[in-house]
Amino acid sequence: MLEVKVDLLKNRLYITLGRIQKNRVKNAYEVVEKAAKKLASGFTCVTRIIDARDIDQNDIDEIIRIQMMLADLGMSKAIRVGVENGKLLLKQVGKGTEYIATDAATLDKAEQMLDNWEKTTRCNEDKPWK
Fold first, then answer.
1. Whole-model pTM?
2. Does domain 2-109 have CATH number 3.30.750.24?
3. Residue 45: exposed, middle, or buried by beta-carbon count in 10 A (0-12, 13-18, 19+)?
4. What are the backbone angles phi and psi of residue 44, rounded to the nearest 5°?
5. 78: CB partners within 8 A, 6+ apart
6. What share of the chain is helix, strand, coil (3-state, %, to 5)?
7. CA-based nearest residue to 4, from 64, 48, 41, 44
8. Selection from 87, 78, 83 nearest residue 51 by Cα
9. Residue ranges of the domains in the chain?
10. How far is CA 51 from CA 57, 63, 85, in A?
């Protein structure tokens, strides 16, 4: 299961990963890319991992490809929420990316962390998406 949403007002991408059947990540790249291209550079992302079982090397390669694409499109910060093994997987495969990624215990906490980060790091910058 893959769900991708965009909040244009917050300039934020939301990705939810449910149970992924083997080799089912492959069309996720196009779905995530289409959504991310709607956002301005500097966008943030909440990735919610519900279940990370059954991920194989092909899926990991595709996840790396997605993470690199998001970095290339200008994602500035990501927060991971959900099952610990899924957060660990994304942390391990995303070591080479150019954006900041951290973990949160809940979706509400992730939102709060990103909102606070936006206030403190961008308080003097113009936000092109507002």
1. 0.82
2. yes
3. buried
4. -115, 170
5. 44, 45, 46, 47, 70, 99, 100, 101, 102
6. 40, 20, 40
7. 48
8. 83
9. 2-109
10. 16, 15, 9
Per the CB < 8 A criterion, the answer to whether 128 and 105 are in contact is no
Beta-bridge mates of residue 94: none
Site of tokens 């070591």: 95
Report how far residue 51's alpha carbon sits from residue 68's, in angstroms, rounded to the nearest whole number: 22
Strand residue runs (E) in 24-107: 44-49, 77-82, 100-103
What residues does 5 pair with on adjacent strands?
14
pLDDT above 50 for 130: no
CA dist 13 and 7 (Å) reads: 6
- Cα atoms found within 13 Å of the Cα of residue 111, Cβ hemisphere only: 6
Angle, CA 17 vertex, CA 81 and CA 48 arms, to 5°: 15
3-state secondary structure of 116: helix
Q: Per-residue pLDDT tens for 94-125?
A: 666 667 788 899 999 999 999 998 888 765 55
